Amino acid sequence: MLDTREQICALCNSKAKFYFVDHGDKKYFDCTNCKRYLICIDAEHYISEATEEIRINTARYAQESADDEATVISIESVTPYKHVAAKYAKRAELNV
Ligand SMILES: [Zn+2]
């Protein structure tokens, strides 16, 4: 059984639900604004410390996902830079 918890959305600061996946390495969020998204813990931390612009752009991208999709948000690093990578995935194909 999934252990669903509540937390402020990592992207838009409204109340959202999530549960841990991948042994706690990722969170699968369900936000009324940002729809469903899978975010790795590293990316959540990065976004919490990033500029408003990065957070808002990521939120906007997630908000435009289709009903059968979820946004997969991760961190890509090209030394010494890191950036947020977001892409859509069919929810049916995600193992969440
Ligand atoms: Zn949100």
Q: Into how many domains do the coordinates divide?
A: 1
User: Which class of secondary structure composition applies to the elements?
Assistant: alpha+beta
Q: What about the largest sheet?
A: 6 strands, mixed
How many strands in all?
6
Characterize the overall form. globular
SSE arrangement, N to C: EEEEHHEE
In the predicted model, the low-confidence regions spanning at least 5 consecutive residues are none
Please tally the helical runs, counting DSSP H or I stretches of 4 or more residues: 2
Strand order of the largest sheet: 1-2-3-4-5-6
Supply database-style keywords.
single chain; 96 residues; alpha+beta; six-stranded mixed beta sheet; 2 helices; 22% helix; 45% strand; globular; binds zinc ion
Fold and architecture overview:
- The chain contains 2 helices and 6 strands.
- The radius of gyration is 13 Å and the shape is globular.
- The protein has a 6-stranded mixed sheet with strand order 1-2-3-4-5-6, covered by helices on one side.
- The chain has one domain (5-94).
- The chain is of the alpha+beta class and 96 residues long.
- Bound molecules: zinc ion.
- Zinc ion (ZN) is lined by residues 9, 11-12, 14, 16, 31, 33-34, 59.
Helices, strands, pairings?
Elements: E1 5-8, E2 15-21, E3 26-31, E4 35-40, H1 41-49, H2 52-63, E5 69-78, E6 81-90
Parallel strand pairs: 4-5
Antiparallel strand pairs: 1-2, 2-3, 3-4, 5-6
The structure holds zinc ion.
